[in-house]
From TrEMBL, chain A:
This is 2Fe-2S iron-sulfur cluster binding domain-containing protein. The keyword Iron applies. Residues 1-76 form the 2Fe-2S ferredoxin-type domain. InterPro entries: 2Fe-2S-bd, 2Fe-2S-bd_dom_sf, 2Fe-2S_ferredoxin-like_sf, 2Fe-2S_ferredoxin-type, Beta-grasp_dom_sf, Diverse_Oxidoreductases. Gene3D superfamilies: 3.10.20.30, [2Fe-2S]-binding domain. PROSITE patterns: 2FE2S_FER_2. SUPFAM superfamilies: 2Fe-2S ferredoxin-like (SSF54292), CO dehydrogenase ISP C-domain like (SSF47741). Keywords: 2Fe-2S, Iron, Iron-sulfur, Metal-binding.
UniProtKB/TrEMBL annotation, chain B:
Keywords: Molybdenum, Oxidoreductase. It comes from the Bacteria. The keyword Oxidoreductase applies. The keyword Cell membrane does not apply. This is Molybdopterin-dependent oxidoreductase. Residues 18-130 form the Aldehyde oxidase/xanthine dehydrogenase a/b hammerhead domain. It comes from Acetobacterium fimetarium.
Length: 154, 761
């Protein structure tokens, strides 16, 4: 089938297999920030943003993204740096393999939640696994970022 | 301008948080052959026939390799210094398969779909053999896992393949039976820790190609590039001089990547075809055919006098290494060596162990490396002793813990130069409110809230074995290039070592540029494991800087025509003490003469392995109806000597504790009766999410280790050891149930409470 979609505002029209997975499609289009950590939708490493919502690209067919605008970290470098600096100041990006998925989900979260509490943050991000950090440093970084953006965490 | 003991941002931080392509798979050429493995459906079998033709014939398939295509010389995948204590017991592919998931054939082709198709077309006829699945019966069992004649053990570790023994030993000091016989209080219990997956977010992966010089080059997610070079040389029967190993950024290690799990498969493909080849393990493969923690069953006897002084410890560890012996002989040692010495008043100890082969996935190295298992057993037993004596579990530790200056017979006879365990305990008590909260309270919602304690130690590098070299050169801009062979696996060692160098050279961290590891250009380092990097490679950095500063001073003095005693180097210039003359480093670097090159290299191997210490305290809430347990608060106070990087050391601690919490409460590798691994996805093998870890609070009570760089010891491993015993203790203090087998599940707590009720009825 032929689809048309936008990756980081770049239009792509392409013939694809009906069962092609978005994650592979994105990596094939040089979006190497998109990682795979599982096959059971548990890890969140593959998170991208479609229609302002975080979406697991590992369990999304490319066909489902037809006519949509997809954003990966490659297209959100400025925002990534802004939040990333807060993470880095905590040393919370350890191996960094979970960082792209986390950053994407946090960027979606700040649009969706106003003044989230610690609990709300943890709930929102519960699908983003991290094996290195123990999550505490990530939470500190996220709260710093929210504070900097003016929507201070409670 | 001090960099040590500051929270310096990691050098690679912004690359990582902006998602740059810096990991193995991101770097692989796009035209790489895709490599996959056909795996055994049986726990124990012999391949009688294998027909690869229907697979080979598929268009797009490059090669299908079987046991007939590999060298018949055995080796180990364990990343250890030669001669490795782990037995040489495997081939790349073997006619005998030893666990469900063991490799049967390697397929390489131009894309994934074709390779998947080819895998299905390989026809294998197996002679199915009786599997040996219970490690308690493995020693001297009639089923032998490694009957082959070319199995070999390089070190004297008590291994014997005709008895299914990967290692066996007994150590003692004094007469443990006699001392136990004269103790007022004796406790004897058996504890069972399970195999655990390191579960790095980046699964195992490697790619290989021939570089411009024709070298077989392996880019791989590894902690041990130099050992991988030797391992590939052994596996492929290729001289080491023809192999090159490169480590890019890696997505987590935790010991998993101290075993060369994937490298040999694409390497064999490249060796046979000359083409680049990439193997990326799926999460499933990473969970069924990797190198998890050794399952241990540990029996502990402790004796104390009437005042609670612990006088004797007897420990017997049975360790399950599975199908192959990676890290088997060494992990088991730590179960005793890094738990028994916590108790400083012991008059006699005995430590005895067997490591056995079985038909489950082979084990490997996981953060803590045996100490974690031993700590769960010994700390739980000490808690049971305290209960029996009606002593506060904190109190029994306060009166028995090892103190600075002690000689530790169970720790290779080393003297303890630095130890703040007492201050760790005092601070942890205060942080969690032990006095007010111990043992626990009943809440009015059918729950109890209770607390528990444990302490732990580890080492800092393997004494007299681990070696680290560092090379630093002044470049013509007056900045420094530092080459290290230690592998940053996300822990931040590139930055930490640069901080150390910056303080030694009196410059900023930015002025030190650090390269990743390439065995062709990096100086030798045994690798990032055994809590060695900060301590060992850090000392090599200090030594290298000292030599380099001498060279800089000498060259400066020569230029100014004065004796070296008359000059000082302030990081920027060499200046005369007796006059105003000076010369900048940059100018010096550009002076062309015979000894133009300002560079130095030094290496270090430590005669001691100073232990870091930890105290952990857990607060849990338990539903007295269902046994459901929630971790509310976890407090850890650590003595890692001087923390070199304040934020990285904290996150290391928090991360290790979270893994320890996973081990304590959730993680379990479950096998079917036929030996099939049922914990083969993140759905079944549950690592903690951010909703599962409660609150983790970390603080430090630092001692100063005289043999370490700027007083530092290690941090990476010790942190994982306390959660299991501390949480088990909190469970007991809440509902009087002893859970002696991990993980501590609601079901086990519920059953324990039910037994209580039945008894009291
Ligand atoms: S790859 Fe794990 S959730 Fe998508
Ligand atoms: S930083 Fe390594 S998994 Fe999150």
């Amino acid at each position: 089938m032929i689809i048309k979609l936008w990756i980081n505002d770049q239009e792509i029209t392409k013939e694809i297999d009906g069962d092609a997975i978005l994650l592979d499609f994105l990596r094939d289009h040089d979006c190497y920030s998109v990682k795979r950590g599982c096959v059971t939708s548990n890890c969140g490493l593959c998170t991208v943003i479609i229609d302002d919502k975080p979406v697991l690209s590992c369990s999304t067919l490319v066909a489902r993204a037809d006519k949509k605008h997809i954003y990966t970290l490659e297209g959100l470098q400025e925002e990534a740096r802004e939040f990333g600096e807060c993470l880095a100041d905590q040393g919370a990006e350890q191996c960094g393999f979970c960082s792209p998925g986390l950053v994407m989900t946090v960027l979606a979260m700040v649009k969706e939640l106003k003044n989230p509490s610690d609990n709300e943050i943890n709930e929102y991000l519960s699908g983003n696994l991290c094996r290195c950090s123990g999550y505490m440093g990530q939470l500190r970084g996220i709260k710093d970022y929210l504070q900097k953006k003016g929507g201070a965490g409670k | 301008m001090r960099a040590v003991n500051q929270a310096v941002r990691k050098k690679d931080a912004m690359l990582l948080v902006t998602g740059q392509p810096v990991y193995t798979q991101d770097l692989a050429p796009k035209d790489c052959l895709i490599v996959k493995i056909l795996r055994s459906p049986y726990a124990h079998a012999l391949i009688k026939e294998i027909n690869t033709e229907p697979a080979t014939k598929l268009p797009g398939i490059e090669c299908v390799l079987t046991y007939k295509d590999v060298p018949d010389q055995r080796f180990t995948l364990a990343g250890q210094t030669f001669p490795e204590p782990s037995p040489y017991d495997r081939l790349i592919l073997d006619q005998r398969v030893r666990f469900v998931g063991d490799a049967v054939a390697i397929v390489a082709g131009e894309n994934e779909q074709t390779v998947d198709k080819a895998l299905k077309r390989i026809k294998v006829k197996y002679e199915v053999l009786e599997p040996l699945l219970d490690f308690r019966t493995a020693r001297d069992h009639k089923v032998l896992i490694h009957p082959e004649a070319n199995w070999k053990s390089l070190c004297d570790v008590g291994a014997d393949n005709t008895r299914n023994l990967c290692a066996s030993n007994e150590e003692k000091n004094g007469d443990v039976d006699e001392v136990l016989g004269s103790c007022e209080w004796v406790i004897e219990q058996t504890y069972h820790t399970k195999a655990n997956q390191q579960t790095t977010m980046e699964t195992f992966r490697s790619y290989t190609y021939r570089d411009q010089a024709g070298k077989l080059t392996c880019v791989t997610s590894t902690q041990i590039p130099f050992h991988v070079k030797r391992i590939l040389s052994n596996a492929l029967a290729l001289p080491e001089s023809e192999i090159r190993v490169v480590k890019p950024r890696i997505g987590g290690g935790f010991g998993a990547k101290q075993t060369a799990v994937t490298e040999m498969y694409p390497a064999l493909v490249t060796q046979k075809t000359g083409k680049p080849a990439l193997l990326v393990y799926s999460r499933r493969e990473s969970l069924i055919a990797s190198a998890p923690r050794h399952e241990n069953e540990i029996t502990v006897r402790i004796g104390a006098d009437k005042n609670g002084i612990i006088r004797a410890i007897d420990m017997v560890t049975l360790s399950n290494t599975g199908a192959y012996g990676e890290h088997g002989p060494t992990t088991v040692g730590l179960s005793g060596h890094k738990s028994i010495p916590l108790y400083g008043k012991v008059e006699a100890f005995r430590f005895k162990y067997d490591v056995v082969y079985t038909n489950v996935m082979s084990s490997g190295a996981y953060r803590g490396y045996g100490a974690t298992q031993g700590t769960f057993a010994l700390e739980s037993a000490v808690n049971e002793l305290a209960e029996k004596m009606k002593l506060d579990p904190v109190r029994i530790r306060e009166i028995n813990m090892v103190k600075e200056g002690a000689v530790m017979p169970a720790y290779y006879g080393e003297t303890l130069n630095s130890c703040a365990l007492d201050r760790c305990m005092a601070k942890a008590k205060e942080m969690i409110g032990w006095q007010e909260k111990y043992p626990g309270i009943e809440l009015n919602n059918g729950k109890v809230r209770s607390i528990g304690v444990a302490m732990a130690m580890q080492g800092s590098s393997i004494a007299n074995v681990d070696t680290a070299a560092v090379f630093i050169k002044v470049n013509d801009q007056g900045h420094y290039d530092m080459k290290i062979g230690a592998t940053d696996m996300g822990t931040g060692c590139d930055t930490i070592l640069a901080q150390i160098a910056a303080d030694c050279l009196n410059c900023s961290v930015e002025q030190i540029s650090v390269s990743g590891v390439d065995t062709d250009v990096s100086p030798y380092d045994s690798g990032s494991y055994a809590s060695s990097t900060t301590y060992l490679t850090g000392t090599a950095v200090v030594n290298t800087c000292e030599t380099l500063v001498e060279m800089i001073r000498k060259k400066g003095a020569d230029q100014m025509g004065c004796p070296i005693e008359d000059v000082e180097f302030d990081g920027d210039r060499v200046h005369r003490v007796s006059g105003n003359e000076s010369i900048t480093l940059r100018a010096l670097a550009n002076v062309q003469d015979q000894d133009a090159d300002l560079s130095a290299t030094e290496s270090y191997c430590s005669p001691v392995s100073p232990p870091p210490f930890a105290v952990g305290m857990a607060e849990v809430e338990i539903d007295t109806e269902t046994g459901a347990i929630d971790l509310i608060d976890y407090v850890a106070v650590l003595d890692c000597g001087t923390p070199i990087n304040k934020s990285l050391v904290r996150v290391q601690a928090e991360g290790g504790i979270a893994q320890g919490i996973g081990m304590a409460l959730y993680e379990d590798i479950v096998y079917s009766r036929e030996g099939r691994n049922l914990s083969n996805s993140l759905m079944q093998y549950k690592i903690p999410t951010r909703l599962d870890v409660g609150r983790i609070r970390v603080d430090f009570a630092s001692s100063y280790e005289p043999t370490g760089p700027f007083g530092a010891k290690s941090i990476g491993e010790v942190v994982i050891n306390t959660p299991s015993p501390a949480i088990a203790n909190a469970v007991y203090n809440g509902v009087h149930v002893h859970v002696r087998e991990l993980p501590i599940t609601a079901e086990k707590i519920y059953n324990g409470m039910k037994q209580h009720k039945n008894k009291s009825n």
